[in-house]
Amino acid sequence: MPGMDFLREAFRGGNRYVLRLAIVAALGGFLFGYDTGVISGALLFIGKDLGAGEFDEQAFVGALLIGAVLGALVAGWAADALSRRRTKIIAGVIYVVGALASALAQTAPELIAARFVLGLAVGTASFVAPMYISELAPKRIRGGVTSFNQLMIVSGILAAYIVNWALKDTTENWRWMLGLGALPGLALAIGMYFQPFSPRWLVEKGRKDEAREVLCKVRKSEDEADEELAEIEQETSEEGGFREALRPQVRPLIAIGLVLAFAQQFIGVNTVIYYAPKILSFTGVGSGSAITQALSVGITNFVFTGIAILLLDRVGRRPLLLAGTAGCVVSLAALGAFFASSSLQHDASWIALVCLITYIASFAIGLGPVFWLMISEIFPLPIRSSAMSISTVGNWTANFLVSSFFLTLTSAITREGTFWLYGGFGIAALVFFALRLPETKDRSLEQIGRDLDTAEQAA
Ligand code: BGC
Question: DSSP class of residue 106?
Answer without folding.
Answer: -
